[in-house]
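FW: tagging you since you asked about this chain on Friday. Here's the raw sequence from the shared folder, copied in full. Didn't touch anything.
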Amino acid sequence: MLRAVSFWTVLLFLTLSARADTLFNSFGPGGSFTTSFGWGIGGPFEMAYPFVAAETATFDAASLAIASGPINIQRSVNIALMTDALDRPGRVIESFQLVDVLPFAGSVSIAPPIVVNSLDHPLLQANTRYWLSIANPGNSGEIDWGTAGIGPPFQRAIRQLGPNQQWLVSGSDRSTAGAFSVTGTPVSSTPVSPSSGTGAVRTFTGNYVAANLQWVAMLFAVATNGGNQAFCYVHYDVGGGGFWLYDDVAGYFKGPISPGTPSNQLQGSLCALNTSGSSVSGFDKLLTVNASVVFKFPQSLNIYMRAYSVNGVDTGWVQEGTWTTAAASMGTMTVAPSSGNVASGTPQTFTLTYPDPQGFAEAAFGWEQFLVGAAADGGGQPFCFVHYDRAGNGLWMYSSDVGFFLGPVAPGTASSALDSSACSVNTAGATVTNTGGNLVLTVPVTMKAPMVGAKNTFQRRLDALNRDTGFVQTGTWTIQ
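HL: got it, structure written out here
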């Protein structure tokens, strides 16, 4: 059997049953039929009968009571499963080419029905009309579609093969209606989950039922073209096994990042994908994508899904839900102690707390800063400015003496590198911990004589979502 180019995907279904059900059957008792009479087609013509799927299921197989004419022989046949287009056969969902397999027309005792097994397993929707067609690929010979004579009155469609040929539809009584059956594996029709709600951080589960997927996508937007507003566009490359995200600020896709890998690379103006908390699984006919999404500001959006096959068939965007985003909290930075007096030349240990954004707790991205001075810009006076590079795990200190940052030195490492006329940092006594979704930085600092006077303490951070808090005053100190 040669399989023709075919594919269609329908989104989004959560679970597949282990059983195969009969979605339609017009055979007689015990699968009986006859090819002694019924309708036949010569070449090059195509004939189709409609059916309605009894339940939502993936298409697994079709059995057809077809045979070669006993005199005008044609033992090859093309078979197609098709959509309905205004009571006529429409788009090809899956097709098959069978070569030299048809038995000769006669009674059921001569040969069993012809069976085609699906490789793509496209989704058939319950109570939806489809068509099953046979085509004579040659210019001669006859193919007969036998009957069981017990089905309801059918429509029958026929057309000549060739470009722009139209289907002609006529009635067919039960005594001549073609006998066939369609079987499939039932699925539970739960769309993307959750399909509605509100929040700043959520894992969205998208389920794609079909084989031969090349990529799948999930879009949070007011419209499929973005609607001139910020949007969140998550893409998963099935073959490459990597997540991508379209950065609407940069104007291109970023990635790939494998599921489960810590990274803050995949983000745009509206959202970030927490790749360490995202996963993909699949078996047989079902691909499940769990996308952990963190939103940066409030917006009312639609949820769209899309899939693309290796055969080049694109489902286009299908709306499957709505979501109202909220801004992931930036939390409150704190310093302890937040106030006091310290003599110049005397070490003072500051414990600095920087909350991580939801979905990125303990993620080693961004940086944290601590400044002691008359103002956030120094106020024209000496200041002490400590910087922690989280990704590089390095402490730095700005020196006004030389006009640049000194460092890096890893916390806990003895070094005299972070020293200026304003202050010095005891890097050996510095620690970094992640506690309860917070980065906690402990820094022993010695203020020097030029720092004498009333000072403020300021904190600043660039978090994993690339959000800069700017300097925020968190305390006051007097250097004596």
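FW: Residues 198-325 form a domain with the Immunoglobulin-like fold (CATH 2.60.40).
HL: agreed, and Residues 1-18 have pLDDT under 50 and may be disordered.
FW: great, closing this out.
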